[in-house]
Amino acid sequence: MRKINFLAILLGGLLSAQTTFTLVKDINPGTSNSAPSNFAVLNGKLYFSATYSPTGSSIGTELWESDGTEDGTKLVMDIYPGTSSSSPSNLFTFNNKIYFTGSISVNGTNTSGLILSYNATDGLQTVSSTAKFATNFTNVGNTLYFKANNTAVTPNTQRLFYLDGNSQAVNADDNTTVMFVGKVGEQLIANAQYKTAANPTWYQLFGFNGTSFDILKNINPSGTAYPQNFYYSASLGKTFFSSNGGEGQELWMTDGTESGTKLVKDINTFSATAGSGPNNFVEYNGKVYFSAADGSTTGTELWVTDGTEQGTSLVKDLFPGSSSSFPEKMVVYGDKLYFLMSNTGGARQLWETDGTEGGTKLVESLAVASNLFVYNDNLYIVARITSTDQAGIELYKVNLGTGTLSVSTDITNKLVIYPNPSKGEINISKVESGTFDLFELSGKLVKRGSFNHNKIVTQVAPGTYILKITSDDKKVSTSEKVIIQ
What we know:
Layout: H1 2-12, E1 20-25, E2 37-42, E3 45-52, E4 60-66, E5 74-77, E6 89-94, E7 97-106, E8 109-119, E9 123-128, E10 131-140, E11 143-150, E12 157-163, E13 169-173, E14 176-184, E15 187-194, E16 204-208, E17 213-217, E18 228-233, E19 238-244, E20 249-254, E21 262-265, E22 279-284, E23 287-293, E24 300-305, E25 313-316, E26 328-333, E27 336-342, E28 348-353, E29 361-366, E30 368-375, E31 378-384, E32 394-399, E33 417-418, E34 425-428, E35 434-440, E36 445-451, E37 455-457, E38 463-471, E39 477-484
Antiparallel strand pairs: 1-32, 2-3, 3-4, 4-5, 6-7, 7-8, 8-9, 10-11, 11-12, 12-13, 14-15, 15-16, 16-17, 18-19, 19-20, 20-21, 22-23, 23-24, 24-25, 26-27, 27-28, 28-29, 30-31, 31-32, 33-34, 34-37, 35-36, 35-38, 38-39
């Protein structure tokens, strides 16, 4: 009995249970994908890009809005009428408008990469047709900055732009090539280089003083530092990023000064120049979480830093060994950090963590998942829940369970699963048909499927597993330890 109770506690720390998903709207009906992306909130509504292309339709990928309900999820407008798509991307909220890049027809010609804006009062407006393919929208001092291609010159150049008082795009500094933009508090920083530099592609960390760029720190004097993935932590007062100081792309931080720009930790010491590739930064409980690879014992996994070398460590090797789980789309919801990861064969999983190894748990395995975010105090995911769903990749509300998937010790509260141990064929009392998930004790999903006639055929390697069973009517859901011989 003591052994079973210990196992229940252990497994309860590994697998969240009773999580369900509510489809907001089947935007692209049937198994076709609407694949919502590029989310931004304006005046309490969620705006995004999605595809609507049923037979006979000519909408394509356009701008949509939602209030979280099926009726409130609708097409804003068909920006590029006909079979073509405007494909809105990089949505950003600023001064009561949504700014984004997209395509429209100009004098009958498909013109892509335009900077557009929208709100319910002014409708759709073209902000710029010369500064195109804008990315890295960044609000500093109530001024909207962004990187864009200056198509007014040949060849096109990548420059920093800002919106003036008339919401027109203005070239902020024509002497510096800009690759990425970020900020430290209210100071703009960038991956940039002077266009007249002896080595114009040796990109370094630059700072912007309001009128022009100047080098903030020459991180790599003998090559390109290429700083990227800028993330400002309000709690720590630093911006974290990935940069190559000669040891490959590693974890750096800056307070906006040269002396305050430092390598936090060389995570990948296995290779002198390969780097750990820090990415997907997010602040949680006063620390910054991110993905990185040590190049030796683990692949790309979940890491945490407090801004010191000693305080930078692996949270958990989600995909044990040198393989990678690639944690991404990290978002704080309630008192946990949630994120997506990839498991064996590229299967997608939703995980949660409280910042400890033991508190890092599998929530649910999914057929496909591409985004995760919080809107109106609810957690949403863009996914296809199972491979047999009648809907494709759509927007779902996540209803997190309050319990954990564990082994019940009360025989009167569980189904009879027999024989146990078995040779792979398992009989289920009381539930004639439903779905099942079979997990290793590590939390890794091994098999998912459906069953009928009260029988499950596992066809897996011998071992000890957790079997989760859900009836077709969803009224019965339980889990049990099973042994396959």
